[in-house]
Specification:
The structure holds two protein chains of two kinds.
Chain A lengths: L1 E4 L7 H10 L5 E6 L2 H13 L3 E7 L2 E7 L1
Parallel strand pairs in A: 1-2
Antiparallel strand pairs in A: 2-4, 3-4
Helix pairs in contact in A: 1-2
Chain B lengths: L1 H26 L9 H11 L13 H16 L6 E2 L3 H18 L3 H9 L4 H20 L9 E2 L2 H20 L20 H18 L3 H11 L3 H24 L18 H18 L3 H9 L3 H19 L11 H23 L5
Antiparallel strand pairs in B: 1-2
Helix pairs in contact in B: 1-8, 1-10, 2-13, 3-7, 3-8, 3-12, 4-11, 4-13, 4-14, 5-6, 5-10, 6-9, 6-11, 8-12, 9-10, 11-14, 12-13
The chains are: A alpha+beta, B mainly alpha.
């Protein structure tokens, strides 16, 4: 699975990293973010691309998994 | 479904914000200046004596309210998070140049919308520059521009800026003799709504902007980057509601809150080229910063020390603008201001290139 570490980055950078990764057309991706706006924005972008989203949180870091 | 809900919420919030902006003028703020983050930070710089332009000195409670509204809602929603360390001094410098661009145009992106909603067609030149500036920023974002990562900080670091804002409010209410105020009739600084109304409007708008992530730059930026319309809808809602409210106020009061044209516009000049270039600088700088001046205030309320430093950069930029005669007036731009905007565009271009193409990026 393609894992993107976007911790500490503010929007729109995590979404740009996700878009760049998703250009490879894999079935699943994971991204690590640590702020609410990035979590919302990456979720919105992935849903728009047709991915299902699941989220786990530990120590202020959100791990979002996107699958098709 | 969730995305539709988000759009409805931000449009509703935008409508409330537009109405409040219009009402603040009715309550006493300068015309087309219900909210102007650049002007209000400039007025606060003047009130604190950072510059001595007598016409623009007042401790605007709207700014205090915006930060505290964001802070209180972020704490309630458990979204308050002390963070910082992402190129802080670069952000300070960008903040200074964004302010210089805004004071060339005479308004931040928020006031640009309100000026158009009040019929000031000069602001359309500003809007053109603003869009071009955002597209310039998007060009670099698409090529990997970053100010690098921020890090978790002690909670005090995130709480200090809201505390500073609260302290300013205490100064205004309890010991105003320490501050400088524009004398009645002496300029825009003398025009203001009652403190309690300004503060309440700031608190409401700060909370709404925290909840919705409203950003005047983010709307056009996200549309260009991702064809994502959420933030842009907020931008449009602010404009539409302020326009409708201005028309209603004109009809009810008989005074003119909507005066379409180029000449005779309040706190504005008619130099289209420099209106364009001022907002080109502001738009480009704001994209590199990650958000407009309003968004920087809201983020500083959420505990973001980098945004707090950006706001301090905006205030320093205001002081520099007035101390060195860079700010425009109703008579038009100054020669010093034109040089500063060109230098600002060069500086922003250099920061954009260094943040995009340097080899030591992480």
């Amino acid at each position: 699975m393609n894992i993107i570490d976007a911790r500490g980055l503010s929007c729109p950078e995590p979404v740009i990293l996700l878009r760049r990764a998703m250009a490879s057309g894999e079935a699943s991706y994971q991204i690590l973010v640590d702020n609410h706006a990035s979590r919302e924005n990456t979720t919105r972008y992935a849903q728009h691309q047709g991915y299902q989203v699941s989220v786990t949180e530990a120590g202020g870091v959100y791990t979002l998994t996107f699958t098709k | 479904m969730q995305r539709k809900g988000e759009k409805t919420v931000i449009m509703a919030a935008g409508c409330v914000i537009g109405v409040l902006a219009s009402l603040l003028v009715f309550w006493g703020n300068p015309v087309n200046m219900g909210f102007c983050i650049a002007c209000f930070l400039r007025d606060i710089s003047g009130a604190l004596g950072f510059h001595s332009a007598a016409a623009v000195q007042y401790l605007r409670p709207e700014i205090v309210g915006l930060v505290l509204g964001s802070f209180l809602l972020a704490v309630c929603r458990k979204e308050f998070s002390a963070r910082g360390g992402s190129s802080p001094l670069t952000r300070f410098v960008l903040g200074m140049f964004v302010m210089i661009g805004c004071l060339m145009f005479l308004g931040c992106p928020f006031r640009m919308i309100l000026r158009i909603a009040g019929g000031d067609l000069n602001a359309l030149f500003g809007l053109g520059g603003f869009v071009c500036g955002i597209l310039a920023g998007v060009f670099f974002l698409n090529r990997g521009y970053t100010l690098r990562r921020s890090y978790a900080l002690p909670r005090l670091e995130g709480a200090l800026f809201p505390v500073l804002m609260a302290a300013l409010l205490v100064l205004l209410v309890a010991v105003p003799s320490l501050l400088r105020f524009t004398e009645a009739g002496g300029g825009p600084g003398a025009l203001h709504a009652p403190v309690i109304l300004s503060l309440a409007a700031g608190l409401i708008v700060g909370a709404l902007a925290q909840h919705t992530r409203l950003c005047m730059v983010g709307g056009i930026r996200d549309m260009a980057l991702f064809r994502e319309s959420k933030l842009l809808l907020g931008f449009v809602a602010v404009f539409a509601s302020a326009l409708v409210c201005n028309l209603i106020l004109s009809a009810i009061t008989g005074a003119s809150y909507f005066n379409p044209g180029l000449t005779g516009q309040p706190v504005a000049h008619t130099d289209g080229l420099w209106n364009f270039l001022g907002m080109l600088l502001a738009g480009w700088g704001c994209v590199l910063l990650g958000g407009c001046p309003l968004r920087q205030l809201v983020l500083s309320g959420e505990g973001n020390a980098d945004s707090a430093l950006t706001v301090l950069g905006l205030m320093a930029g205001a002081a520099v603008s007035h101390n060195f005669s860079l700010a425009s007036s109703a008579d038009g731009p100054t020669a010093n201001g034109k040089i500063a905007v060109i230098l600002g565009l060069c500086a922003v271009a250099a920061i954009a290139c260094l943040g995009t193409f340097r080899k030591d990026r992480t």
